Amino acid sequence: MSGDMLQIFSEFLGTMMLVLLGDGVCAAVNLKKSKAEASGWVVIALGWGAAVTIAVYVAGSMGPAHLNPAVTLGMAIIGNFDWALVLPFIIAQVLGGILGAVLVWLTYLPHFKETKDQASILGTFATGPAIRHTVGNVISETIGTFVLVFALMMFGKNTFTDGLNPLVVGVLILSIGLSLGGSTGYAINPARDLGPRIAHQFLPIANKGNSDWGYSWIPVVAPMIGGAIAAFLYIVIT
């Protein structure tokens, strides 16, 4: 496998792992008769932090482990990534998100039949706002993604012990989830939301409702804005 193809595959594999473990904790908390049912927001935030850590370890030996179109865009803007690979990376990330969501569905297959709340089922796959307010939701996702991408860029200015970087990234995701995630569920990653939402649309999930496509543009567009703002600030200060 060529170097570019290996990197593209690593984004697919890493994002699949990210969504499998990240949406997996959402399923564990949201779905009826799960052993982790109703264990709460802190468990979800911890689970997502751990999911990102594991996914970065999985993908990082083969490529940059962006696992997020907003990160890919930001890195290209600051000149740390080849623009020719931006679209292939994003496609791989979304496809990885779809597969990860399918695997979550299979893992918790009987629990969907026991869950009657359509919002809980959709929340296992994709994000949604606590209060539906378009401007507020866009701002929330933009700020959360700005923090993510800008912090990742600044991490590059620091020296970490070999193998420590994915753990630090996981702590970053945990911090964003606990501090900034309560408004919209902190997608902060178009592939993390769009891929699973596509899976929700097409999978024969028991008791599912609609996929809330009216909201779906926010966790796609706002993170890209946040990533771009982070990149431009990074350029200005460095």
From TrEMBL:
The lineage of its organism: Bacteria, Bacillati, Bacillota, Bacilli, Lactobacillales. PROSITE patterns: MIP. Belongs to the MIP/aquaporin (TC 1.A.8) family. It is found in: Membrane. This is MIP family channel protein. It comes from Carnobacterium inhibens. Signal peptide: none annotated. PANTHER family: AQUAPORIN OR AQUAGLYCEROPORIN RELATED (PTHR43829), AQUAPORIN-9 (PTHR43829:SF9). The keyword Ribosomal protein does not apply. InterPro entries: Aquaporin-like (IPR023271), MIP (IPR000425), MIP/Aquaporin (IPR050363), MIP_CS (IPR022357).
